[in-house]
Amino acid sequence: MKKIFWIAFIAAALWKFSGSDAVVLGPGVKVTEPPVQYDLKQADSFQFKSYRITPLAEFQLKGKVLAREDYSLGRESDLSPVDFALGWQNMSDESVLDKIDISQSGRWYRWRVQEFPIPRRIIETQSANMHIIPANDRVEDMIDLVKQGQLIELKGYLIRVDADDGWHWQSSLTRDDTGAHACELIYVESVLIN
User: What mean pLDDT is predicted for residues 64-92?
Assistant: First the structure.
C-alpha cells in the first residue's frame, strides 16, 4: 500500500509540473478582436499599496493565454505578481501557435520559430506581454486560476506607477512596439475566464 501511495504521489507531482494543465482549444482563431483602448486626457492619481497610480488609458481585451509567469522577487512583484503573454486574432489560433516556441522570464515574453507560420509583424502586433496588477483580492483570486491556453477577458487601465523615491514603471500605450518598454502594465479591475 505504501508503494502505491508513493507511485501515485510521484505521478501527481510530475503531472502538476509537466505543464499538462494547459488548456487546448484546437485550431482556428479564438479571439477575433484586438484590444480596445481609450486614452485618458486627464485622470486622477490614487494610492495603491505604497505607490501612486496614474491611469493613462482605459483598456480591455479578450486574449488567449500563450504563457504565464509568476513572480515573487523584485520591486515589480509587490504590484504585479504575474505576467501573461496574451494573443489575439492570428495569435489565438493553435494551428499557428503550434509552430511558435513561446517562453517568459525576467518580465519578458520571447518567441522563436523554425519557419514563420504567419508574418513576423503579425506575431509582434497580435501578442504582447502584460504585467498584471490585481485591483483587489477578488481579482487576484481569479488571476490565480488562469491557465495557459485559456481565453480570458481583462478590463482596467494602462497605468504609470510612481514611488516616493523616484522609481517609476509605465505601460506601453500601443500594440505596435517591441522590445524594452513595450509591455502593458494593467491595473486589472475585472477578469473573466472563458
Answer: 95
